[in-house]
Amino acid sequence: MKDVLDELAAARRAVGKGSVPAGEAYTVEVRRRYGVPVVDVWDAITSPERLRRWLKPVSGDLRVGGKFEVDGGEHGEILRCDPPRLLKVSWLYGPDADAWPGTSEVEVRLAPGPDGATEFELIHAAVLEEPLFPTYGPGAGGVGWDLHLLALARLLADGESIDHEAIGKSAEGREFIRRSAAAWGEAHLAAGGEPEHVAAAVEATTEFYAPDVTC
């Protein structure tokens, strides 16, 4: 349990403002350090064989301008690829998402850190009208990314794969989700979120990712 929560604590979270082609956006931002070289992290975020072990299976034309699909419904276009430092994609979800192009983008930045480590930054920008935000706040995407990055940390550390979709069924995973939702609530407050909205969003996010199964 301590190792899992240590991974949660290793990340710095922020909620900010940005823009996407569809207009003004909010951002969820995660920054952390991985104790492996940049080239290893880059391979883990671009190689289909390794992507499936921490994200989900990914298929498509994996080059700039190419379209990709993630097993689970996410899909988009590769907008920019500057090995081994920057990857930017559009990130759409759901059957109606293609009717609203330019509404969501994910950018990952890598930089060399101390002692051969990698400074990792992920920024997910989505339009303010995105329907999940009023209910779930930044945790709508933030908790999901925390779960994926937990799996990435395990992969980079020892090659282990974990089922992040099933993690909410364990006591350890549910505690991780609860603390992740709370951490995104703190980031939301720091960005000026209204306390009542933040508290309701944290509760809704926790229930979404780790629903109460006692009843």
From TrEMBL:
Domain Activator of Hsp90 ATPase homologue 1/2-like C-terminal: start-end pairs: 36-156
SUPFAM superfamilies, sorted: Bet v1-like
Any one Pfam family match given in the protein's UniProt record, by short name: AHSA1
Record protein name field: SRPBCC domain-containing protein
Domain of life: Bacteria
Native species: Kribbella sp. HUAS MG21
The family this protein is said to belong to: Belongs to the AHA1 family.
